[in-house]
Amino acid sequence: MTIGKLSRGAITQLAKLVPENVGLQGLTGPDNRAKAEDYCWGREFIDLIVDFAGTVTDPQQLFTILPRLTPRMYSISSSQKVHPDSVHTTVRVIRYEAHGRDRQGVASGHMGDRSQIGTTLPIFLHSNNNFRLPVDPNAPVIMIGPGTGIAPFRAFLEERQADGAKGKNWLFFGEQRSKLDFLYQEQLEGMLADGTLTHLHTAFSRDQHNKVYVQDRIAEEAKEVYEWLEQGAYFYDCGDATRMAKDVELALLDAIAKGSNGTLDHANEYLANMKKQKRYQRDVY
Questions:
Q1: Residue 285, SS3?
Q2: List of domains in the chain
Q3: Model confidence pLDDT, tens digit, residues 228-251
Q4: Mean pLDDT score of the chain
Q5: Is residue 188 within 8 Å of residue 173, measured between CB atoms?
Q6: What pTM value is reported for the model?
Q7: Suppose 140 and one of 73, 233, 249, 283 were both cysteines; which one would form an S-S bond, judging by CB atoms 3.0 to 4.6 Å apart?
Q8: How far, in whole angstroms, is CA 251 from its chain's centroid?
């Protein structure tokens, strides 16, 4: 059961147990949807049962109130060819404060803070049939992986390195500070030195006065990005869906428009064609 992020469904189910509770009833029904969503924002189930204390009188009631906990999907960040007996993930514990409580991500907190080394945890394997390396080992690959979004691209690079694939590889990686947040720095710089990586462009937003992000690096390298696309490059983007993915797509469209001396409409048509060819893939969350 999910005792993390609060949902309107949990409020509705709790309200059914205590129809006389005016406060809970004021958060249910279509007319109160906006009010309920506002209440849920940043809250967890613990807030609900504290704010409406005494409404749960039997632990068995929780099975009717709480929805099942859905699996948290993490990209595998290792190649089986390089690590045949293990699977690596890249996980940052989400920590934040909301409504007077210190909070953390349900899955990331469980792995990072509450599980000791050697702890056995259940896993749920899910195959992503689209977000994969090109079948052609000679095809160029452009990867945008800020933060933990680098996870699948570490696996991609390890796989191509193990296969001896001849296709060019270009990684854009972004984080806050290079000294603290450069994930897999030694390995990536080694791949750059041995030619596995053709280009490695980084964007550390807090290392200078003006913040720099991966989309800014794409804009700086727009001419060569378009040249790679014309050579049949596959373009992958992994990470934050709220802002990063949108900004990266805008930077990509701008690179296409400038490179082709075309309009934004033309760039959108170009990108739509890449999608049809499965050369533009996103794994965003």
A1: coil
A2: 8-65 (no CATH), 141-284 (3.40.50.80)
A3: 999 999 999 999 998 999 999 999
A4: 95
A5: yes
A6: 0.89
A7: 233
A8: 19
